[in-house]
Amino acid sequence: MKLNYYGHSCFSVFAGGKHLLFDPFITPNELAKAVNIDEIAADYIFVSHGHFDHVFDVVQIAKRTGAMVLGNWEIYDWFNKQGLTNTHPINPGGKFSFDFGTVKCVTAVHSSSLPDGSYGGVASGYVFKTPDGNFYYSGDTGLTLDMQLIAKFAELDFAVLPIGDGLTMGVEDAIEAARYAGAKKVLGVHYDTFGFIKIDHEQAIRDFADAGLTLYLPGIGDTIDL
What we know:
By secondary structure, the protein is an alpha/beta fold. The protein is built from 6 helices and 14 strands. The chain has helices spanning 52-55, 58-65, 73-81, 150-153, 171-181, 201-210, and strands at 2-5, 11-15, 18-22, 44-46, 68-71, 87-89, 95-98, 101-107, 124-130, 133-137, 158-162, 185-189, 214-216, 223-225. The longest helix has 11 residues, at 171-181. It is globular and about 50 Å long.
C-alpha cells in the first residue's frame, strides 16, 4: 500500500482503489507549508477526534473532493452543521463495509473537544481490512490493553501510532502498542509539530529496531510503500 505523509497526524493510504485520508491538519502547520491541500486526493476522510490539530482542513478538502467524512456521532453531527452533506457516523465497536473494504472503529484513550468548544465525543481509532492489506490507525491515545483485540480482527501489515509523548503515547508505549496489535511496521505520527512533542528521530528508530520493529518517519510530503 502507498502511504503519503502530510505532517503531524495527517496521512493518506491508497487501498482498495480509494484514497483514505486521515485527520487533515496541514494549513496551520508551519512544518507542512510546502504541502498544497488543493492537490490532496481524498475519497474518504476519517477523523479520530475533535481537536483542532486533527480537523482543521476537513471541510475545505471534503468540499473540493466530495469525500465522505467519517467520525463519531458528535463529530458527524458537527460537520453536518458546517455544511457537509457526505458524512457517515461510526462509533467505537462499530463496523461498516465500503467499496474499499471494511473499517472497524475502536477505542482510543484521549480527550476530545471541537474547535468551537463543543463536546467532541469519545476519541477513536480505526482498523482497516482491504484487498491490498490491513492496517490500524490508533488516533491520539495512551497505551491500552484493548489494543490486544486489534489482532483478533485483522492481521496487520502496519500500524500508525503517535510517538510524541506528553499528550499521547511516547516511543516506549508505542512499541508495546505495536506488539499488542501485532504490527511489525509502524508509521510514527503526532511528533515535532509543537515544542512539547519534539523527539529524537534517530533514537526512536533505534528503540523500535531493538524491539524487532521498524519505525518509519518519512519527510512531510513523502510517499512510502508499506
